[in-house]
Amino acid sequence: MNQYPHPIIAREGWPFLIGSIAIALLLSALAGGIIELLSWIVVLFVLQFFRDPARVIPQDAGAVLSPADGRIVAVERTNDPYVQREAIKVSVFMNVFNVHSNRSPVDGTVQQVWYFPGKFVNADLDKASTENERNAVWLKTANGTDITSVQVAGLIARRILCYVKAGDVLARGQRYGFIRFGSRVDVYLPLDANVKVSIGDKVSATTTILAILP
Question: CA–CA separation, 26 vs 49, rounded Å?
Answer without folding.
Answer: 22
